[in-house]
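Audit log entry. Action: structure prediction of a protein-small molecule complex. Ligand: guanosine-5'-diphosphate. The ligand was supplied as SMILES and no pocket hint was given, so placement is left entirely to the predictor. Protonation state taken as written. Sequence taken verbatim from the request; no trimming, no tag removal. Recorded inputs:
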Amino acid sequence: MSGRDGASAVSVAGSGRRRLARDLSKIARASVAESLQILRERGARPARRIGFTGPPGAGKSTLIGRVAKARAARGEPIAIIAIDPSSPATSGALLGDRVRMDAVLADTDVFIRSLPSGWSADGLSDNLADVLAAVEGDGFSEILLETVGVGQVENGARALVDTLVLTMGPQSGDQIQAMKAGVLETADIVVINKCDLPGAERMAQDIRNVLERNRANGHRIAPVLLTRANDDASIAQLSSAIDEHTQWRTAHVDAAHAEEMRKRFHVRSLLTRRVAELIDTLPEDARAASVAQLYACIAKQIGDTE
Ligand SMILES: Nc1nc2c(ncn2[C@@H]2O[C@H](COP(=O)(O)OP(=O)(O)O)[C@@H](O)[C@H]2O)c(=O)[nH]1
Ligand SMILES: [Mg+2]
């Protein structure tokens, strides 16, 4: 894993990035008090945030690497944050992601960081909102975020990114069946990757049919693209679709409202963590207390937090 960082020429950008990498590892495990301190120290400088979500094995890491390479060629500083679904104890997938991305991005300036998802049930890192804010504070103009999941994860990712790319393989049919109603509709772009495998075309058409039903409601209809990691033209098409969505968003989404929703989500995730911290430190004699008393005890301590 040390290959890329170690081998690259040491530059000002290089040492800045090593610091960011260290900071992110810290933030990923920070207490709420530490997170608040870090947030105060770093200024906000919004970056374009593009989320890739979808079932494991769909090809998200591979695609993100290719898309990042294509977009980095335009000269903008790009960061990739991959939230690893495996437990912190098994770093296998983490390493796999890095190896795949590093190979593609070896001759670029793209910053890559994989973080464990920790104990959160939704596959997002508990501190993801802090992590993204820290990366933004470091001057990247674009962040590509990889998260695993088809289900509730999209709600969290939805609030944190500007463009959400739902990535599936042609074999993900069962996973689509299992998706909660509405998940497909949260995506801004739907990608059927591995279109070299059978069934991709058919699946794309099925999804288009589902999405078309929304046209009557006046919703924007997400484009459904077919990609193959080794096909540069399909990667360029995906990159253009991301740009088109960015433009659409500028014209149609109230930026102040989106910013407010993001802040609300961030505060909620800080509070959720804070409550968990306090519950973990309840005293021994809490056993005798009623639920209402425990609630009051936690609420009071939250109130005492600056
Ligand atoms: N056949 C084929 N395999 C692909 C394609 N894209 C990725 N893969 C492979 O699919 C596997 C899972 O890819 P990965 O990017 O790790 O998926 P992730 O779990 O969604 O991040 C890897 O073995 C990739 O090499 C593609 O376009 N076609
Ligand atoms: Mg991956």
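Audit: result stored. The chain is about 55% helix and 15% strand. The longest strand covers residues 48-54.
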